[in-house]
Amino acid sequence: MTPHRPGCGGPECSGWPASRCWAPSPGAAKAGDESGWQWAGDLGTYPAAWVLVVALIGRFAPGAGAAAVRAAVFFASMTAAYYGWAVVVLGFGYDPDLILAWLFLAATAVAAFAAVGWWATRRPGPVAGALLALAAGTALADGAVRGLYLSWTGSAVPSRPVQAAVEVVVALAVTLALPRFRSARLWALGLLLPMAWLAQELLDRLLYGTGFIR
C-alpha cells in the first residue's frame, strides 16, 4: 500500500479511506491494509465500512448540524491520524494535495452524507427512501457483490466473498435497520439497485473521473 492513498490495498489502487472508520486506530488500519489477507485489505480499501460508520453517526446524532459536524470531525481526524502514522511511524512520504482533498471531502461530502442520513432516517415516504437507497448503494459501489455473481457464472473475475457479504450487510442495515418508518424502509429497499448504479456513476464521474482523487 502507498500512504498517498488512504486505505488503499495496493500501489495502483485509488481506494477509499474507509479503513480509518472501521479500525479503532490508524495502526490497525495500516495492519489491515498490509496484513496479506485479502478480506482485511478490502475492508480497509472500499467504502462499505465508511458508509456504515457515517450513517450511524447521522442516525444517532441529535440534529442534522450535529451529524454533519461529528462526521466531518471524525473523518478529518482519522485522515490526519492515518497519514501521521504512515509518515512518522512507517517513514513514508505523503502527498499534501491528496491530504487536502480528503479533508475537503470530510468537510463537504461526508458532512452532507451524515446530515442527509439524519433527515432521511426520521422521515417516511419515497424521498427519504431514495436518499437511504443512495447511501446504501454507495456501500455496493466497490462491485464485490457483482464480481461474486460473475465468478459464480464462470467469468474470470476475482471473487471476494467476505467483502461482498460486508457490502450486503451494510446495505441492508442502512435500508432496513436505520429508518424509523416502514414506508421509508420499503422505498429504500425497492430503489437499492438503481441507486447503487447511480452511486457508482457519481463516484466515477465526480471523484475519479475528474482527477480529484487519484
User: What would the average pLDDT be, to the nearest integer?
Assistant: 79
- Into which percentage range does the β-strand content fall? under 5%
Largest sheet: none
Please estimate the helix content.
over 70%
Choose one word for the global shape. Answer: globular
Structural class designation: mainly alpha
Radius of gyration from CA coordinates: 17 Å
The topology string of helices and strands comes to HHHHHHHHHHH
Query: Which residues sit in consecutive blocks of at least 5 with pLDDT less than 50?
Result: 1-26
Terminal Cα separation, in Å? 14 Å
Number of strands: 0
Output the number of helix runs: 11
Overview of the structural elements:
- The chain has 214 residues and is mostly helical.
- It has helices spanning 19-22, 26-33, 38-45, 48-60, 64-89, 96-120, 126-139, 144-152, 161-177, 182-190, 192-208.
- It is globular.
- The two termini are 14 Å apart.
- The model is unreliable at 1-26 (pLDDT under 50).
